[in-house]
Amino acid sequence: MSSAWILGLAVCLGGCATVQLDTPEPLQVDIRMKVDVEQKGGTMAKSGEGNLSVAEERRMLSHQVQILKNDHRVGEAADGTLILKELPQDQAYADYAKTVVVKENGARAKMFEEKAKLEGKSEADYAKEFAQRARESSYPGEWIQEESGKWRKK
């Protein structure tokens, strides 16, 4: 049996193919991506914002808004707008925060107009409902304004 085993081993080893792992030329990878880079406290990158839908514009701002909420700089007002509650001492960061708030409120105003028409409501009514949902979905520690006008951290 040992001769059969040796013969089987010889057949197996003799049948093994050599695999070439190198390539004659370097591999090339074609990657296309769009990157908008922002610096906290710096200016915001432009990326054809004029062509964005309200939903796309708000989605692009959502991260920046959340950072400002986490830093306790902005809060959700009872009228559905975003309010700058605590102005950063660093002037560049303060300018950045103001810009984000203005852009977010502009997008919200457009959204209130569009949604109010679709739902047959006034913009003020839709904004009030939006504000209620924003208060409910806010995280603990974020600024929110009650319908009475009183500000508190959730």
From TrEMBL:
Stretches the record annotates as Disordered: 135-154
InterPro entries: YdbL
The protein's name in its UniProt record: DUF1318 domain-containing protein
